[in-house]
Amino acid sequence: KLLSDQEAPSLETDAYRLTVTPQGAHLASGGREGRIYGLATLRQLRDQLAEQPEGIPCGIITDKPRYPWRGLMVDPARHFIPAADLKKFVDMMAYYKFNKLQIHLTDDQGWRLPVPGYPKLKSIASRREESFEDGIPHEGMYTKQELKELVAYCAARGIEVIPEIDVPGHNQALHAAYPEFFCFPKPDMNVRTTAGNSKELVCPQKPEVWKFYAAVFKELKDIFPSGIVHLGGDEAPLEKTWAKCPLSIQYREQKGMKDVHEELKEFIKKMSSLLAVHGKRIQLWYEKPWARANIYNKGDTVFTWRMGLTPSTITETKKQGLSLIIAAGEHCYLDYPQLPGQNNRGWMPTTTLEQSYRLDPAYGRPEKETNHIIGVQGTVWGEHLPSLNHILYRAYPRACAIAEAGWSPMSVRSWENFRRKLADHRQFILKRFNYDMERTKENE
Length: 444
Ligand code: ACM
What we know:
Blueprint: E1 2-7, E2 16-21, E3 24-29, H1 32-51, E4 59-63, E5 69-74, H2 83-95, E6 100-104, E7 106-107, E8 110-111, H3 120-125, E9 127-128, E10 138-139, H4 144-156, E11 160-167, H5 172-177, H6 207-223, E12 228-232, H7 246-255, H8 260-276, E13 281-285, H9 288-292, E14 301-304, H10 310-320, E15 323-326, H11 329-332, H12 353-357, H13 367-370, E16 373-380, H14 388-395, H15 398-407, H16 415-433
Parallel strand pairs: 1-3, 5-6, 5-16, 6-11, 11-12, 12-13, 13-14, 14-15, 15-16
Antiparallel strand pairs: 2-3, 2-4, 7-8, 9-10
């Protein structure tokens, strides 16, 4: 029973103190976030109590997160996730004190954001013939109202929603709907039906592209109060498109640009300006060739993600004055198999729960080398995850490990202790969320 619930000016806004006595609990928090986290802890203690009739220990918990950014990314572009299912996913995130939900709205395999004036996003880009030759058509598009409701639902649980519109690459679905946005328009282009990324990059030298993204960003502004838009920026093979595009070649010559990277720098800058009009800043997936070409600007936030590159990326991003979020492939890619023998789709490295747990976001380095790291993020890429059950089966329990990596300092973490806690949490998850890890094994 919650006996008192008060603000305590001595605590930071995301900190709380929970005092458990035989009569009930007293919550003190520094601000709205701290209160939400304190209530989340209380919820876990209640679940513990339900499992443990002898009661929970009395005591005082004084707590706050190690990092301000503790996120998960979902991928409705690859398989549409109905809004009601996203809310269930969010319930579990809130239970583990995640505070950021990145929603990957666009990719080669589907476009999920409606944009006024662009009806073919729905009639063409949100549909595909099949997935991996299964012969079953797949489609899905959110309504503006659904997304607004999701944002409000998340906000009530202390979670900020960050939309991702991937540019310039990962845009085969967009090409199917609007071939005129591309360097080499192919009217017979289809929405991609397999995994793997396309070489479909929007053409920066076509005015209709800029008109389109202005409309996209206006829509984002209406829906998402977050001051951030993730612009992707990953896996964009410039050499195969912009390098050969007559319009781009002519433009680079005119401007005296020495290569496509200079054109890319201008492209990202122009995109940032379009978003700045709405008071929004960009985030990007970090790519080393982009960094070498000085695409990122001091103060930008990027994500480290490629396998094995995080240690060097921590050093490089510090030098460039960037903020960094750790989504390291070897710990944070939660669509990868987590048990040996689980379907690895022919290439994915098995990433065990222990491997995810072993993440120290600072990689054991001193504060002065890592004070630009603002947090962690698990990514749940959806190429092979066609339902909420598939998503949860892969994401958990590893998401619990990522949550702890973002929340707790290394001094209080231990794999043995985590495993012991997880045995309890398995019961909580089963009861509270009606999600049975064994039952969904068939969904591998
Ligand atoms: C990514 O996995 N392409 C960021």
